[in-house]
Structure formats: structure tokens, C-alpha cells
Amino acid sequence: MVLCWSLDKAGPICRSAEDCAVVFNYIHGTDGKDYGSVDKNFNYDGVVDFKKLRVAYAENYFKKLAADAPERKVLEVYRSLGADIKAVDFPDSSVYPVNLISVILNAESAAAFDELTRTNRDDLIERQDKGFWPNSFRAARLIPAVEYINANRYRYNLCKTVNDFMKDYDVVIVPSFAGRQLSITNLTGNPVVVMPMGFNQSGSPLSITLIGNLYDEATILAAARAYQDKTDFNKKHPEKFKE
Hints:
The chain is of the alpha/beta class. It contains nine helices and five strands.
């Protein structure tokens, strides 16, 4: 289902990075019917040479973590694999000072579901609480075209800035929920791999994120596989789902 055509993405959710590579191999590219999509090569072989790979970590995010944060152990694993990890400042508030996603997502989703709203069939949706989709679609009809266009102008500059930053690195390691990188990569389209790297005190899984260059899913998947070959977090099962 289309919600926001310039932000929607298809991506695999799998047990391992290797499985994600298998699925992505079949879903990437274009069917030729969407002129906004492209077909790029996916040269994945699962092998990575950490002596050649340019790996960095977002120091501006990591410095806010506790000294014993499990995210820091991820860096130790990659160093043990031979990675020379550079400390960098991932572009954040300086390039994303306002909430662009809300304007773009709400305007585009309201357009996608325009007929549903105008025919009042949105009344059939069970949830009608404030902020849920029916009311979001209704309210977004009042977003000025000027605001939507200017949001995309800012988005263009954001894409250019992040792309220029990423040219110096193949993989950037970031804490999954740190800063504004979730919103930023959603807007720029930079591929990410999110993988388990431990558990909190209640037993719920924790994750780490690898950010890559545009159309270079193969590299971050290979880097993720190397981490998973060294650890066993992705092989863990909930108590009632153990094999």
C-alpha cells in the first residue's frame, strides 16, 4: 500500500544479514512501471576486506552513551575484525533543523488517500483518535503548497550534504535511535542495516545501525554479516520460540 511515495521503501526483515541479501537480490530494481525508480547493480558476495573498507562511527552520538553501553562493544567487534574505525560527526541538527518529514509525509499521504477522504469512507476506519490516519489525511489538506514545495527544497540540500559526507566512508556505525539520523536517512534514501547487538535488562533486543552510500546495500550487508559471523545475537530466539 502506498502511503507516501517519496518516502516509502521496500526492504527485507530477516533472521540474518545474509538472508536479507538473498531477499534484496530479488526485490531490488524496477519493474519499468515506476519512472521514479532505478535499477542498480547489487554486487553482493558476502566478503569484506576491513583493511580496505572505510568504516566510521558517529562520535557525536556515541559520546552521549554510557561508558558501558552495548553499542561500544560493537565497535570493539569491528576492530577485532581489522576495521580501522574513524570518529566522525554525523550531520544532524545543522542540516536538519526543522521537521521536514511531517510536512512531506502528511501532504503526500493525504493525496494518496484523497478519494477515501472526499467520499467520507474514512469514517469507516475504526480508529478516529487525534493524530491517527483518518484525521491526519483530513488535516493535511490544509497544508499550503508553498510549505510542501519548500520542504522538498530543504530536502534536496539535505540529500546533497549527506551524500557529500558519505563519499568518504563505506560504512558509518550509529546507535539506532540516536539524534535525527532516522529522519535524515529516511529523507535521503541512504540504505541502512539494523541488526541485533544485545538485550536490555528486561530481555528485549537492542540494535545497532550501519549506514551506507546510495545504491551500495551490498557493502553494509557484508559488513553486517561479518559482525554476525563473530557474534550470535541474530541466532537468539524468544523463550517460547526456541528451536
